[in-house]
Prior knowledge:
Blueprint: E1 26-39, E2 42-48, E3 53-59, H1 65-72, E4 79-88, E5 96-107, H2 124-129, H3 131-134, H4 138-159, E6 164-165, E7 171-172, E8 184-186, E9 192-195, H5 200-210, E10 212-220, E11 233-242, H6 246-267, H7 269-275, H8 280-283, E12 291-293, H9 294-306, H10 322-330, E13 336-339, E14 352-353, E15 356-360, E16 362-367, E17 372-379, H11 384-393, H12 402-409, E18 415-421, H13 422-430
Parallel strand pairs: 3-5, 6-10, 12-13
Antiparallel strand pairs: 1-2, 1-4, 2-3, 4-5, 7-9, 8-9, 10-11, 11-18, 13-16, 14-15, 16-17, 17-18
This protein binds one RNA strand of 75 nucleotides through strand 1, strand 2, strand 3, helix 2 and strand 11.
Amino acid sequence: MHMSESVTEKVTYPTIATLSEHEGETIILRGWLYNLRESGKLLFPIFRDGTGTIQGIVPKAAVAPEVFDRIKGLTLESSVIVTGKVRADSRAPSGFELDVQDLEIVQQVSAETPFPISLKEHGVDFLMEHRHLWVRTPRQSAILRVRATIMRAAAEYFDTNGFTRTDPPILTPNACEGTSELFEMDYFDDGKAYLTQSGQLYIEATALALGKVYSFGPTFRAEKSKTRRHLTEFWMIEPEVAYIELDGLMELAENFISHIVARVLEGHRADLKVIGRDVTKLETIKAPFPKISYDEAAAMLAEAFKEGKIENEFVYGNDFGSPDETYISSQFDRPVMVHRYPAAFKAFYMQPDPLDPTKALCVDVLAPEGYGEIIGGSQRIDSYDLLKSRIEEHHLPLDAFQWYLDLRRYGSVPHAGFGMGIERAVAWICGLDHVRETIPFARTLNRIYP
RNA sequence: UCCUGAGUAGCUCAAUGGCAGAGCAUUCGGCUGUUAACCGAAGGGUUGUAGGUUCGAGUCCUACCUCAGGAGCCA
C-alpha cells in the first residue's frame, strides 16, 4: 500500500490530549476514525489518536466537495490525517471540537470487512477473540495507560529508595516452592526446565549481595484456575531487603502502594473517568494501613458469622477463602495488612514467629472493595539448620536447594521481601471486575489467541 | 479437577414442541448540531457438533465440543 510522505515527514503534531493548549490553531492530527455521525449536509466524524478522542465538524459548504465525499464515505477505524482548527465548544464532551478543513485517508477499512468492535455491547468471548482490536477502544486504552503508570511508579519507588533491580532467570531448573503447577519444557540434554513461578529465592541471593534489591518480570503458573483473579502469565514486582524484619517489610509495602496510587491519581484523572472508577475510593489510600493479625482476622470472621453477616463459618487454622478475604477487606477503607498466618499452610521458607512458632512472620495485603490479596510477603528463615529441616519436612529435593542453603551458610542475616501481582493491583486501582482487561494480551486457562 | 450456567444473522439478544425474528453493524435513501444520533429501505441463517424421541425440534433426551462464573490454589 502506498503511504503518502506526510505520514513520515518531520513535523510535530499535537496529540488530542493536549489540544486544549492549541485553541484557535490549525493543527494536523494523525489517527483513526472512531465514529461518524451525519445530519444532512453536516458530518460529525470523531477521531482518536491513542491519547483521546475529539469530534470534528464538517459542513458541506465549508470544504471542497471531494473532501466532503471522502469523509462521508469513511468506514470506522480507517486511518486518517486530518487538518483542522481547534475550537472551544460547550457541546463537546472534552470542551473542544475540530473544524475540519482537509482529510487524507491513509488506509480505508473495507466495508466488506467492517471493524468488528462496534460501539454497542459485546460478549467476553468475542472481545477476547478480538483483543488485538479491542485495545483500540477508549476504555481499554485508558486501562493500559494506567497499567503503564502503575508499573513505572512501582519501579520508580524502588529505584529512588536505594534498591538495585536484579531480575532472576525465567527458566528455572525446578519448582521454587514445590507446590504450584509449572510450565515445563525440554532444556537441551539437561532434562527439564520450567518457567519461573517466582523469582524470590534468586533475589534473596542478590539481596545478600546488594542489600536492597527488586525484580520485575513475568511469572507463570500452570494452575487450572478459572476465576476473575487469575492469569497463567502475569507480572510481578518483588523487593527483597537484607536486615529488615516483618515490621519493616509492612512499612515498605504500605509506602510502596501509597506511592503508586498517588502517581495514578496525579496523572490519570481523565482515564479513571473513562474507566468509570470512583476516585474518592482511591484518595483515601495513604499509609499507614490497618494491620491485623491472622488471629484478629479470624475473630472478625467468627463474629460476623455469629451476627449473620456472612454465610460460611470460618474454621480457625485454615487459610482464608476468597469470600473471607472480601469480608475482611470490606471492613476497611484502605488496604489491610494481615500478618502472622499459621505456618502450617504457608511456604517452607517463612521465618517462624519467636512469640508463637506455629505462626509465620508473613503478611498479605488485601485490597479494599473485595479485590483480595495483591501482595504476599514474609521474613525468610535465616538459620541454616531450620531451613534445612523445613526443606526436608516439605519433601523438597535437597540437592536443588544447596545454593539456597548456602545463603544461610555465608553471612546469613534477617531479611524479608514481598511480591505484588501487577494485574491484581491494576484491577483494584481501575475498579475492574476481571484481571484479563489489565494486561494487553491475557493468557488464561482457555485462551492463548491472539 | 469439580460444581453451575450459556451456545440462534458479523455483534447483542428474542422466539409456549407448529411460518427463525428484532436492534446494532454493512449497503442505498432522507435530515445543517449530531452525542452508542435519528427516520425509511435492502441484503444477511447448516439455530455449536453428532445421534435420538416426535406427524413436526432452535425448543425435549444422550454424548461430545466451546465459552463463562465459582471452588480448590495462588499474586
